[in-house]
User: Which sequence fits this backbone?
């Protein structure tokens, strides 16, 4: 059994999506607890990927390929999981803030968090404060992530946090911010709960914030 | 011997693409514009394109190749950039290469303390003054977002700080049309009116679309403003490999070419002959750190390639060099700068920006500017090639030389040494003991001292009273 879990984790690490899907099915066929398959197989594999990426041993495409394998496994596993088929990590709403159409950095963070088991709700780019508020009301996420590439648009992070406050939703979520001009000092100044300088750190930060 | 016809000196150049490769990329770009299409967020620009023969399909604007070819034919092949004193110092035209810094860094290295901190408006002006005092730097760019002014006014203050700090032509950025109008008012005041500014432009706007294929409203609006006024603009997209562009350079070039040409089409639809600087940026999205690499070899390789494409279109060329991913001005910084500066020269890129960037464009460093100034001067010697003629072949000097005795005291040496040999300035060739006596300073430390010396001594002709009045008026209006 442990052997099968290790196989799932190592195939996931190598990005073998077909194998991961097959192995997850095999584990379920053998009557293993879906929650164990998730924790000891899929998430354990992604954990290893995350660690090695952070240590500089893996490249971004290798992480993304591993994340695809994770998805393949989840697709098999999801119907057997409780709580609506989630990983239990919770939901995270992400977007690039109003006035800013830059998508790439936000997408990378989204994919990394997805790989770590978060259920991601992506509001895209140029997201107004109301868009964030509507999404928080609808999805009840644990986390809200905001991205900005421009000095002129990062001020809208502050406006969004204030709008969450006014809507009475600020305390229901942890807010993390990132993007080229965003510093830890700026994050503290605008009342965000955390700042991550890169996508790998964003995963650590997200985990720490929901712990 | 009577005076004979001199043998022309070969000046080294490089080509990255063959004629066939250029055409294949060109055709792919035309295909991207007519079959894939762009997303145009500016309503007026969309209408301009549609009225001219473009069409909409699936939320995209499709631009047929005849619009592109018309625009290429209509755009001037040179942009005569002047300094703000009205002198032609920077004609962007075939064969000429000009260097300058980059725009809008988040941080700057404090030249006094070495601290990495947010830039102020005073920093922007000081960096411009340093550029003014550096002989190999031809134009200014802001090198920072001033953190001590209101966020919506940062670009206006960048422009004011740059033209106060230097007489050299300036490549500026702006947030929106309101910025453009204010900057234009100040520029007209300095030049002596709208016509004078059009005749002797001392400024060029740097705006950009977002790769892939996205044209933000305000970005396009700035482009249209320049076309309305007939003042120079560059609109280089950044199809960074693996990020904004495909992972492969050919794909990035085809995409970037298409994106740049769409900008060109818009300018020429508004006003035929609008001076448009062609180019793009092909950094690499680093697959480990996910930074956009400014020292990546993909950038100079791409620059040489799009320079070949620009020559095929007979358009002036935008490029980048002299930047590094290193967090300090070190050996990596020197290596990355030398490779890109050499390439910029070899490929005859006309306007080469980003000189002095460190930390993948996040931070500006005066020391890096000073180091690059020396590298540019050094590479310039290589570009001069080898003059072959009677005065350089030294026929008689060789004939009269004592075998083994050398040429040091020969008349030919004493007569020609000043021009025939390159002489280092910042680069050190002093003997070891002398170097120790002078404090054992490495090149970065010497560059720091040089930057401080220039800042302490270099004076810049002030702006005209009319320009200062225009600045006061614009700032008062914004404060109201």
Assistant:
């Amino acid at each position: 059994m442990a052997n099968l879990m290790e196989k799932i984790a190592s195939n996931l690490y190598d990005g073998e999506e077909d194998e991961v899907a097959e192995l997850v099915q095999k584990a379920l066929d053998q009557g293993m607890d879906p929650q164990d398959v998730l924790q000891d197989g899929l998430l354990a594999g992604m954990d290893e990927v995350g660690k090695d990426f952070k240590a500089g041993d893996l490249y971004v495409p290798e992480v993304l390929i591993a994340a695809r394998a994770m998805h393949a496994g989840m697709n098999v596993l999801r119907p057997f999981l409780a709580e609506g088929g989630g990983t239990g990590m919770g939901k995270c709403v992400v977007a690039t803030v109003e006035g800013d159409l830059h998508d790439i950095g936000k997408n990378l963070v989204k994919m990394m968090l997805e790989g770590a088991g978060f259920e991601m709700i992506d509001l895209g780019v140029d997201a107004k404060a109301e868009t964030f508020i509507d999404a928080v009301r609808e999805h009840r996420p644990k986390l809200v992530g905001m991205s900005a590439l421009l000095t002129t648009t990062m001020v809208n992070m502050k406006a969004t946090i204030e709008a969450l406050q006014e809507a009475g939703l600020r305390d229901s979520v942890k807010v993390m911010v990132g993007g080229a001009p965003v510093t830890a000092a700026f994050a503290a100044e605008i009342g965000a709960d955390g700042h991550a300088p890169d996508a790998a750190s964003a995963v650590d930060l997200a985990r720490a914030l929901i712990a | 011997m009577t005076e004979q016809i001199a043998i022309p000196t070969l000046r080294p150049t490089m080509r990255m693409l063959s004629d066939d490769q250029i055409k294949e990329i060109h055709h792919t770009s035309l295909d991207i514009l007519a079959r894939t299409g762009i997303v145009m967020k500016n309503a007026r620009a969309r209408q301009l394109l549609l009225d001219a023969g473009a069409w909409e399909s699936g939320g995209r604007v499709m631009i047929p190749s005849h619009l592109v070819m018309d625009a290429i034919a209509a755009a001037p092949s040179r942009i005569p950039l002047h300094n703000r004193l009205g002198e032609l110092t920077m004609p962007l035209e075939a064969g000429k290469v000009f260097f300058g810094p980059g725009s809008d860094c988040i941080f700057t290295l404090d030249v006094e303390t070495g601290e990495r901190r947010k830039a102020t408006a005073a920093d922007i002006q000081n960096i411009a003054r340093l550029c003014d005092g550096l002989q190999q730097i031809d134009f200014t760019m802001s090198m920072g977002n001033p953190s001590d002014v209101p966020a919506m006014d940062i670009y206006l203050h960048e422009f004011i700080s740059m033209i106060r700090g230097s007489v050299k032509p300036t490549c500026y950025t702006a947030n929106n049309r309101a910025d453009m109008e204010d900057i234009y008012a100040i520029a007209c005041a300095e030049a002596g009116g709208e016509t004078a500014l059009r005749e002797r432009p001392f400024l060029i706007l740097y705006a950009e679309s977002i790769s892939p294929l996205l044209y933000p409203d305000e970005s396009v609006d700035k482009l249209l403003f320049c076309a309305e006024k007939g003042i120079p603009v560059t609109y280089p997209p950044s199809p960074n490999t693996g990020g904004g562009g495909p992972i492969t350079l050919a794909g990035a070039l085809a995409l970037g070419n298409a994106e740049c040409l769409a900008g060109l089409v818009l300018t020429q639809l508004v006003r035929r002959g609008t001076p448009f600087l062609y180019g793009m940026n092909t950094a690499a999205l680093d697959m480990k750190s996910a930074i956009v690499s400014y020292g990546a070899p993909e950038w100079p390789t791409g620059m040489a390639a799009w320079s070949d494409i620009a020559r095929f279109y007979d358009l002036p060329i935008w490029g980048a060099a002299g930047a590094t991913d290193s967090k300090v001005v070190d050996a990596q910084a020197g290596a990355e700068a030398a490779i890109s500066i050499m390439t910029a020269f070899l490929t005859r890129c006309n306007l080469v920006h980003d000189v002095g960037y460190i930390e993948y464009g996040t931070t500006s460093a005066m020391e890096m500017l000073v180091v690059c100034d020396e590298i540019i001067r050094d590479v310039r010697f290589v570009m001069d090639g080898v003059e072959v003629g009677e005065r350089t072949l030294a026929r008689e000097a060789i004939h009269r030389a004592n075998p083994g005795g050398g040429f040091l005291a020969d008349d030919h040496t004493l007569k020609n040494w000043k021009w025939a040999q390159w002489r280092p300035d910042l680069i050190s060739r002093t003997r070891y003991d002398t170097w120790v006596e002078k404090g054992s300073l490495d090149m970065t430390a010497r560059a720091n001292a040089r930057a401080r010396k220039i800042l302490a001594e270099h004076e810049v002709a002030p702006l005209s009273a009319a320009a200062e009045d225009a600045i006061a008026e614009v700032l008062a209006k914004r404060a109201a």
Chain A touches chain B at residues 56, 59-61, 101-105, 108, 151-152, 155, 180-181, 198-199 (CB under 8 Å). Chain A has two domains: 2-85, 91-210. Residues 8 and 23 of chain A are 6 Å apart (CA to CA). The mean pLDDT of chain A is 92.
